[in-house]
Amino acid sequence: MCGIAGCYFPGGRNRDGLRDAVTRMTRSLHHRGPEAGGIWLDHKSGLAFGHRRLAILDLTSAGHQPFFSASGRFVVTFNGEIYNFVELRKKLDHPFSTRTDTEVLVAAIESWGLERTLPRLDGMFAFAVWDRQTHELALARDRMGEKPLFFARSAHGIYFASETRAFEALPDFSLSIDPVAREHFLNFGYISGPRTMWRGIESLPPGHVLRGEGAPQRYLELCPAGRFSGGETEAVSELGRLLEQSVRSRLIADVPAGVFLSGGVDSSLIAAYAPGVSTFTIGFEEGDFDESAQAREVAGVLGTQHHEWRISPTEALTVIPDLPAVFDQPFGDSSQIPALLLARRARQHVTVALGGDGGDELFAAYPRYRQIERLHRIPRWMRQALAAAGSLGAGEKSLLLSESARAEDLASLYSGIMGGTVQPEESPDAVAWMCGHDLSNYLPDDLLVKLDRSTMSVALESRLPFLAPGVVDFAKSLPRGLRLGKRIPRALLRRHLPPHLVDRPKRGFRVPIAEWLRGPLRPWAEELVPGITDQIPAGSRCVRVWSRLMFEAWLTRRGVRPVPGDRPLAQVGAPD
Length: 576
Prior knowledge:
- α7 packs across α22 and α15 (380-389) crosses α16.
- By secondary structure, the chain is α+β, with helices and mostly antiparallel strands.
- The protein is 40% helix and 15% strand.
């Protein structure tokens, strides 16, 4: 796990200019890899690679980067982990000199070529590779988007980095806010890739490779897998086999590892297949939002070394000033607060932490999947009549109904609620389509951003067993009846835990942000945006309010002011 940066100017560049640029960019990513840094230049080709290292495998200096292939033809700067590197290593005729997955990666590229290597990788990664023979630069990102990679083109070449803050470190790089990204952020609380908050800086989409001056190209489709032909018993056994294999490979490390345990189905399953590890939980003083007791009971049954902390509003207030620095772009998911606090506490004990992210999207766990599927079956004229009559009253169900009355199809309905890039409705299965949308948008642009930035801010590596290729393909192969409502993971967990710890409604990683904003956080919020706490809706959902606050805090930290003609919050986007 590391931070990478670099630039390429095909016409060549002054050595000092290259070194200064990549040094500034790499220095801004020190938090991602505080243990070592490296720079490599080829000024005649106009190329510079930078790297910050967090050592996980082979802790010696032999693992430092940028890293060269055995022949010297390929050089790579790499962020992430290749979990099947031991298996790949056995297939390569190569004189290995380290125990790193980085060496396996460059050896595979040298032996098989980049196109044949990428589909074989089980891992989370973002890397740049330079072919010194053909003078070709390629950038690549893992299929699910676990690791970030951004790039920006200039008149003379291209810059790339793990976080957009690296571009801010360049004194001659012009930065201005993208109004489309800003609008999406204020509506949904995250920025939908490939846009970023800065004009001209793009996120390389998951599962894509970028070569030279071309456009990003997908190297691996997240296409529907073949239909699973077995029944529930066979499906449960298959998921158990796949998860056990995935967890085992993600526990390979030369540093201490643990598990983030919420007490829900997904994280409990991960802990069940990681016997003897340390588990870590964050709880809240507000009982309606606290699941620490459940996590504690799960840990007791599984026999883990459990660590638990409870968050008070006062403690939340102490971490809020750090959020605009931790998140290089505005980020409006309020669960970022416990995520960051949990990462900071866990880092005192481990350097690697496994989590259950991805399970909800893969196994259709969100209640909205059932609700929207039912609405989708109702003729549009009837939805419009129900919405006009206000038959569902206020709240989330009313929002879904009003959106469905405006939407012409499932794609426009779901994107209107969740945001993201609209994908064609190729599947007649509405649940499968919504899961696919979330896996391509909400997961990489919201959930994985939260996890990456919060953990990497303290040099903690997060690993996600549910996003292993085998598990992803298996989940997508399940028919609706076995996939919806996390049926198979729940059945699998019953093999490890008593039923009362399994068969409970999904609660999610929520925080009492509305209560905090009406109480101890009110002075901070009112100082940023006077009158904003009067706009907090009933209940606990206040996505737009929190997003506006995070946007203003981000602007303030960077000394950037809103674009002329800024509209007030009440005129931006759809209601909460």
